[in-house]
TrEMBL record:
Signal peptide: none annotated. Residues 180-307 form the GGDEF domain. It comes from Pseudobutyrivibrio xylanivorans DSM 14809. One of its GO terms (molecular function) is cyclic-guanylate-specific phosphodiesterase activity. SMART domains: EAL, GGDEF. It comes from the Bacteria. InterPro entries: Cyclic-di-GMP_PDE-like, EAL_dom, EAL_sf, GGDEF_dom, Nucleotide_cyclase, PAS, PAS-like_dom_sf, PAS_fold_3. Residues 316-569 form the EAL domain. NCBIfam families: GGDEF (TIGR00254). Transmembrane segments: none annotated. PROSITE patterns: EAL, GGDEF. This is Diguanylate cyclase (GGDEF) domain-containing protein.
Length: 577
């Protein structure tokens, strides 16, 4: 290192030429260095204290390699300020004035004046790279490293979940923080497992480290932790508007990554604490739930946990907890809505729609439970019940000698993943002696956006067995003319969004083109959302074959639908008056 000799300090001598030395810095603020002995100065390739201070910027932060700084700051804080001990042991790199990288062991102790001002007294030792990377020795220093791992995440250097809980709970219990705003933020990388599959675990780890650094840099005065995998959590005392700005800044920085493979869209959930006595784990759960609620939303980058989301999550949980009971006790009801032959005004069919009439919470609309059941892959339970109930009702009508027309049933795209849809249809048709031409299968158009070939194969099986297949919700957001060209089906059902824009001349012209094109291909067009005589007459003028909407009747229980049809003077196709 240097010439071996003793240097007179005025209060004794210091041996020089050693691979280690002693320095002091302030524990608060900029962490200003107050003293460094000659060995520390020489370790950095400097000759004088002034030269050393200028090189490191006069602070402890400037002394540490930039890539290691936030890691070891977390470790020092965990071991001294929030730990049972008041001393720390950490390892990091430094860069000398010549640009050489050296590996340092740091032994520090936190000392306090009576007035509360604090200082770190630190002894550092230069170790070679092999020892720095060695994790197999059982020295006291290595044991301290392992102890430190209990508080910080090994990959990113951020706090781990258990220590985050410990530290933040201490902060929330303090009088100073109790008077401040408190926020919890969770960051996730959507489909991170898929990212690892595409780019490998090494790049995945690099991405996690990059995200951790960006979050720590943006939320510079906050407590940041990595809980697991791609889940990062922040505790902040910044004002609400600053928290939101910081979340958006993290999102922007991740998209501006130099490496195109690391440009990812992160999602965030924010929970503004409304009770300082709240348990940290529960607050983190709220942020997590807010984040999870937008995982599949491409138009939102963050979500704030509020009363609306709280109620939505409670409804979701109620649906999951009670779906089996609702089916077993017939709380799930099948409503019917008439479908009209436009040219004649006769009822040529009905659509079966599910509703949940719960004795505890009242009527649950499809918006309250269908999406939830699809999300948790339970929708097949309702669809199976619906097919069974429709077949039961049709058998009852036949046995009573009442008119029967085909009924369309909605089948979810997810049903094809968990059950044999054709067998499901055939089983109930056989049990209740219902011919296949009386059951029509509606599949939402978004389901045809399938590159596995599963839907195309299953649809072909269903049609070949004798069931009509309908494309539902055409025009609701996924529309592609390729759907009409590539799949074989019988009915094209235009979404009600078209007639909602009926007064737009372009919409009317587009509808006429779609209906003519479908008819030319041998596909029967049906338009839903008919709410007026004007709508009805327009569909007649463009030769739309079938129509459905409140103008003819709202969805209702079978008895009510039949009564409504009779009251309107409508007749069933093939039965006359």
């Amino acid at each position: 290192m240097g010439k071996e000799e003793y240097v007179e300090t005025g209060v004794g001598v210091v041996p020089t030429g050693l691979p280690g030395g002693f320095f002091i810095y302030e524990a608060e603020g900029d962490e200003k260095i107050l003293f460094a002995d000659s060995n520390v100065i020489n370790l950095f390739g400097c000759q004088t204290f002034d030269e050393f201070m200028e090189f490191v910027g006069g602070t402890f932060k400037g002394l540490v390699h930039p890539e290691d700084l936030y890691k070891i700051e977390n470790q020092i804080q965990a071991q001294t300020i929030f730990g049972e001990k008041r001393h720390d042991y950490v390892r990091y790199r430094i860069i000398t004035k010549k640009g050489d990288v050296r590996y340092i062991e740091d032994f520090g102790h936190l000392l306090h004046w009576m007035n509360g001002k604090s200082f770190f007294y630190v002894f550092i030792v230069d170790v070679d790279q092999n020892e720095y990377l060695n994790s197999s020795r059982n020295s006291y220093a290595e044991a301290e490293v392992l102890a430190g791992d209990r508080e910080t995440d090994k990959l990113t250097g951020l706090f781990n979940m258990s220590f985050f809980y410990h530290k933040v709970q201490m902060l929330l219990n303090s009088n100073e923080v109790a008077r401040q705003e408190s926020s919890f933020v969770q960051f996730d990388i959507p489909n991170f497992k898929l990212y690892n599959e595409r780019h490998g675990f090494k790049m995945g780890d690099e991405l996690l480290c990059d995200l951790g650094r960006i979050i720590k840099d943006v939320f510079c005065s906050s407590t940041v932790a990595r809980f697991s995998d791609d889940h990062f959590v922040v505790y902040s005392n910044d004002p609400k508007n600053v928290v939101i700005e910081n979340v958006e800044e993290v999102y922007k920085r991740m998209l501006l990554a130099d490496d195109v493979n690391k440009k990812v869209r992160v999602k965030a959930g924010i929970y503004f604490l409304d009770d300082q006595r709240a348990e940290v784990g529960l607050a983190c759960d709220h942020a997590r739930l807010a984040c999870n609620s937008i995982k599949n939303r491409h138009d939102l980058n963050y979500c704030i946990y509020d009363d609306i989301l709280r109620d939505k999550l409670r409804r979701q949980q109620y649906v999951i907890d009670h779906i089996d009971e609702a089916i077993a006790l017939d709380y799930i009801k099948v409503f019917y809505q008439p479908i009209i032959r436009v040219a004649t005004g006769e009822v040529c069919g009905m659509e079966a729609l599910v509703r949940w009439v719960d004795p505890s919470v009242g009527m649950l609309s499809p918006l309250d439970f269908i999406e939830t059941l699809e999300h948790f892959h339970l929708i097949h339970l309702v669809d199976e019940f619906m097919v069974k109930k429709v077949c039961q009702d049709m058998r009852m009508l036949m046995d009573e000698g009442l008119p029967v027309v085909p009924v369309s049933v909605n089948i979810s795209r997810l049903d094809f993943d968990v059950c044999d849809v054709l067998k499901l249809l055939d089983d109930f048709c056989e049990i209740y002696e219902i011919t296949r031409d009386l059951i029509e299968v509606e599949i939402t158009e978004s389901a045809f956006n399938d590159n596995t070939g599963l839907i195309k194969h299953e649809v072909a099986k269903i049609r070949n067995a004798g069931y009509e297949v309908w494309v539902d919700d055409f025009g609701s957001g996924y529309s592609s003319l390729n759907t009409i060209a590539e799949y074989e089906f019988d009915v094209l059902k235009l979404d009600l969004i078209f007639l909602r824009s009926y007064h737009n001349a372009h919409t009317r012209k587009l509808m006429s083109y779609i209906i003519k094109g479908a008819s030319d291909l041998g596909i029967k067009p049906l338009c839903e959302g008919v709410e007026s005589e004007e709508h009805y007459q327009f569909l007649k003028s463009i030769n739309c074959e079938r129509a459905q909407g409140y103008y003819f009747g709202k969805p209702a229980l079978l008895d009510e639908t039949l009564e409504n049809i009779a009251n309107k003077g409508m007749t069933f196709e093939g039965y006359g008056e």
